[in-house]
Amino acid sequence: MKRYLQRVVVVCLIIINLSFVALAAGGKAKIAPENYIPILMYHHFVTEKVEPGNGVIVPIDELEEQIKTLQQEGYTFLFLSEFYKIMQQVPKNTKLHLKKYVVITIDDGYKSNYELVYPILQKYNVKANISVVTSSIGTIPLPGDIARMSWENLNEMQQSGLVEIYNHTNDHTPVGNRSYQEVASSVDKGEKMLNQFLQKRSPVKVLTYPNGNYRKEIASWMQAEKGYQLQLTTNIAVVNGKTSLCEIPRITVDSGWTGQKLLQKIEYTAKKTFQNPFLKLFAAHRLRVTAVIGLMMLSLLFMIPNITKYK
Question: Model-level pTM?
Answer without folding.
Answer: 0.82
